[in-house]
Design a protein that fits this description.
Elements (H helix, E strand, L loop, with lengths): L1 H6 L9 H39 L3 H61 L2 H25 L5 H20 L11 H22 L1
């Protein structure tokens, strides 16, 4: 069992150091937002408490509480600046990751393109183009012959053959003008004549 598990491939994490950094920045951002929310709640609570102290005539205590409130407001402004920096840093880091991915893609594409260029050099491309051109021209000649588009030399040869046929036709005797017997009619008359023959012989006897 131990040997079986030892042969299994270990899971390789695809989380990079940049991913970890982005995650940490986002966690810090979330903590700052929670801290801001807590300060805002405290500010509202202190304001209400100072209002009540003034109503009770406790001016000095109300003043001291408002000083504390003022300090917390300054802290809130500081967290706003820190939060803005975290947001900008997170954005820059994420964009840098995208740029790295784009560069990796370009690198892979350039390697693939170089491999293709190594396989198909200029001389081989020219050879293929010439062979393709010859094949197209040959096919065009075949198409022209099939479609009846003869050259001038072919036309002259056809005219000469036509004249030779006409000369031979002039030397042949005229065809007979009498109507030739219809072969089908002769074949149809044979059975009828065969039946009439015994009857004629009996009458002569």
């Amino acid at each position: 069992m131990g040997g079986l598990f030892s042969k299994q491939k270990k899971h390789v994490s695809r989380v990079t150091e940049q991913d970890k950094a982005v995650l940490q920045l986002k966690q810090q951002r979330d903590k700052l937002k929670q801290y801001q929310k807590k300060i805002e709640i405290n500010l509202e609570r202190d304001r209400q408490f100072a209002k009540r102290l003034l109503a009770e005539g406790k001016r000095e205590k109300a003043k001291s509480l408002l000083k504390k409130k003022r300090y917390q407001e300054q802290l809130l402004q500081n967290t706003d600046a820190q939060l803005e920096q975290l947001e900008q840093l997170t954005h820059d880091l994420e964009f840098a990751q995208i740029e790295v991915q784009v560069l990796d893609g370009l690198k892979t594409g350039n390697v693939a393109l170089k491999s293709i260029h190594d396989i198909l050099n200029i001389d081989e491309i020219e050879k293929i183009m010439d062979e393709t051109k010859e094949g197209i021209e040959k096919q065009r000649e075949i198409d022209e012959l099939i479609s009846g588009q003869l050259t001038e030399e072919d036309e002259e040869a056809v005219e000469a053959e036509l004249e030779a046929i006409l000369d031979v036709s002039d030397q042949l005797p005229d065809a007979p003008k009498e109507k030739l017997p219809d072969i089908e009619e002769e074949e149809a008359e044979k059975p009828r004549k065969a039946k009439e023959a015994p009857t004629k012989i009996a009458m002569e006897a």
